[in-house]
Amino acid sequence: MASISSLGIGSGLDLNGLLDQLRDAEREKLEPIVAQSEQQQARISALGKLQSAMTQFDDSVETLKDASLYESLSASGGGDTLSASVDAAAQPGSYSVEVSNLAKAGTLATQRVDAPDEAIVDAGGKLNLNFKGGDVPAVEVDIAADSTLEDIRDAINAKEGAGVSASIVNDGEGYRLALNSTETGVDAAIDSTNFSTLVAGNLAANPDNQITQPGEDAALKINGIDITSTTNEVTEAIQGVTLNLKETTAADSPITLKVEQDTLKVREAVSGFVKSYNALKDTMGTLTSYNSETGQAGELNGDRTVRTVESRLRSVLSGGVPGGELNTLSEVGITLQRDGTLELDEDALGEQVSGNMAALGEFFAGSEGSTGMAGRVDEALGRMLDEESGLVARSIEGAEGRLERLGERYTRMETSVERTVERYRAQFGQLDAMIANMNQTSSYLTQQFDALDAQLGRD
């Protein structure tokens, strides 16, 4: 029997080409399985998109569900002078603020030396950094023998808790070590050093004196009360409010800082709720779409999972929240449209936010013993998004199971196809050998007949 590599040589037939055609024909049996696998993979991907959109909607629901949202305060009116932030301890109020001085860090420039890279410390020692405040301890920095001004700078900057940052300046007559306090305020200001003693004998010909610029505290008035601060971040001057000072005010021209209910945050939360639901609705519409002209359908067209999600959410959103002053979404300015989307009436919401915040909070966040609209939606989403028993998770698990079974079926079918092809190959080999033998016999007989004819012709 001829080998695979010489299949067809014995017969002169294109048995390899025929074998390839038979293989292709057999492998067509795999195409339906491939198509079904791709369909399941597309369904898993589409369910993932649905899950992501539902999770994003749930995030906006969680914001509305938080009762503290409807009690939050914000500060306004600081202008260019200051910015303000509030925490839970803040109380609504109006404050007159005058800023007469900003906090500044103190600086010190040492005596001059001739060059920054020449040794100026003979035997080494300690550089003492003394600060203005009596409660601020002095700092000692170890300086090695033969250190240059650059080495001293580096040693200071490497010292943890030095209280200053060091650099080198050239004032036109020599080089000075410039020290800048890392904190603002009078007490944290660098006041003096023993630099001249440490580098004795190595100062410039005209060393001059140390130059200091004192640190300053911030000074302001709140409702006529004088307040000082070592930093421009002023805390506790107004309970629950942190002021960040940026500029001073003109004389006798205070600004008015207001701490009041943060209506903007509530508006944004409600608007975010509507937008994220509509985004979810748009995602579901895309996944279940069908184009009659092209015949193209979305990955989840006709899928029970999407219909169930949509139905359950519509049921919750169109339902009421009994017991409170506000009972339905339409009363807060949100209406369910015919296409299933939500529409927000900003003016209607504004009326509730500005004049009925407590009722709005009770409607969305609920009250003691009752669940608000946000809580009801969150519960519905939670059941459907549960990682183990949720509707979406079970749908994904089912699709993954079908995909796995299709993979096993594909493997079995592929093995069967290869066995069939190998059977064809063996049969073709036998055919090739048989035709080769027949060709040899035919050639032999032809030769014998030719020889016999030749012999008869001579006789």
TrEMBL record:
Keywords: Bacterial flagellum, Cell projection, Cilium, Coiled coil, Flagellum, Secreted
Domain of life: Bacteria
Pfam family, one: FliD_N
Membrane-spanning ranges: none
Subcellular location: Secreted; Bacterial flagellum
Record keyword rRNA-binding present: no
Ranges of residues in domain Flagellar hook-associated protein 2 N-terminal: 11-105
InterPro entries with a match to the protein in the record: Flagellin_hook_IN_motif, FliD, FliD_C, FliD_N
Assembly description: Homopentamer.
Function: Required for morphogenesis and for the elongation of the flagellar filament by facilitating polymerization of the flagellin monomers at the tip of growing filament. Forms a capping structure, which prevents flagellin subunits (transported through the central channel of the flagellum) from leaking out without polymerization at the distal end.
Family membership: Belongs to the FliD family.
Protein name, per record: Flagellar hook-associated protein 2
Organism, as annotated: Halomonas saccharevitans
